[in-house]
Amino acid sequence: MDRKLKDYGLLVLKGMGMGAADVVPGVSGGTIAFIVGIYEELIDSIKSINGASLKLLLSGKIATFWKAINANFLLSIVGGIGISIFSLAKIITYLLVYHPILVWAFFFGLVLASTLFVSKDIKKWNWKTILSFIAGAILAFYITVATPAETSNNYLFIFLCGAIAICAMILPGISGSFILVLLGKYFYIMEAVKTFNIPVMLVFICGAAIGITSFSRILSFALRKFHDITISVLAGFMLGSLNKVWPWKETVETYIDSHGVTKPLVEVNIMPNQLVWEAVGLMIIGFAMVYFLEKLSMKGTKA
């Protein structure tokens, strides 16, 4: 695909959107990729990093390798994700602690709209797609109510966390950040990012690289051979994940971070009890943003 400089600039912005979502435990970068219309290209590009393409690199055919893996596209997306994570990590964690209802309300509207628009990609609804949708919703809901674990800080486990979390990050509706919460490593990894703990970050990134290149092949095959069923499962994931992004929560378990600040660890959903109109307004804004991006994407496709 021929792209101009402004197109790559737009891809960086889309990557930044993915990165911002990945920082929030409960929102998936894969959801953002779906919204902005780059999901399948992203999966196929990651899948193209394989033995054949690496052989081109090792044999010195750098230009051919670069084109084979759609590297301009990947570099733009990864660059945007990186910019967002490093610039927004402190802001997002601050907002989640001090303005959680408003943050979750915005993402609730965003994920709800995403579920509706992703469902439109299902060409034919039948018992298989309906069952797949329900199964995806149940699985995502179960993940959102699972209890975080106490786990080791050794490098092997950090590597495994990277491999597992990255797979969730590219699945719409399944939050890689929340998977890290369940593995007991979200706050540990976020602290590593904020303090530039290079060894921990490198081990985590290596695990993520192995995980995403392996999992992308499975996902690409599923989208190609079982498109409607796969999209149904992904849409179900999004619907089930709404349980996690419900704005009104009650903390039942806390933890103390490295700065001695008490923060929520385990929460349960409750009925709206404060900032109701502000939250509803942000839900509408989140929903409207997805609607606008969907219409923009449709115009781009027709053009």
Report helical residue fraction: over 70%
Tally of separate domains: 1
Taken from the alpha-carbon principal axes, the silhouette is globular
Oligomer: single chain
Task: Compute the CA-based radius of gyration.
Answer: 19 Å
Structural class: mainly alpha
Average pLDDT level: 80
Output the strand order for the largest sheet.
1-2
Q: Unreliable runs, pLDDT <50, ≥5 residues?
A: none
Listing every helix as H and every strand as E from the N terminus to the C terminus, the arrangement reads HHHHHHHHHHHHHEEH
Give a short overview:
With 303 residues, the protein is mostly helical.
Overview of the structural elements:
This protein has a two-stranded antiparallel ribbon. It has one domain (5-302). The protein has helices spanning 5-23, 29-35, 39-47, 51-58, 62-68, 71-98, 100-119, 127-145, 155-169, 176-182, 186-194, 198-225, 227-241, 276-302; strands at 249-256, 262-269. The model has no long low-confidence stretch (mean pLDDT 80). The relative contact order is 0.16. Helix content is 72%, strand content 5%.
How are the SSEs ordered, and which strands pair?
Blueprint: H1 5-23, H2 29-35, H3 39-47, H4 51-58, H5 62-68, H6 71-98, H7 100-119, H8 127-145, H9 155-169, H10 176-182, H11 186-194, H12 198-225, H13 227-241, E1 249-256, E2 262-269, H14 276-302
Antiparallel strand pairs: 1-2
Helix pairs in contact: 1-2, 1-6, 2-7, 3-12, 4-5, 6-7, 7-13, 7-14, 8-13, 9-10, 9-12, 12-13
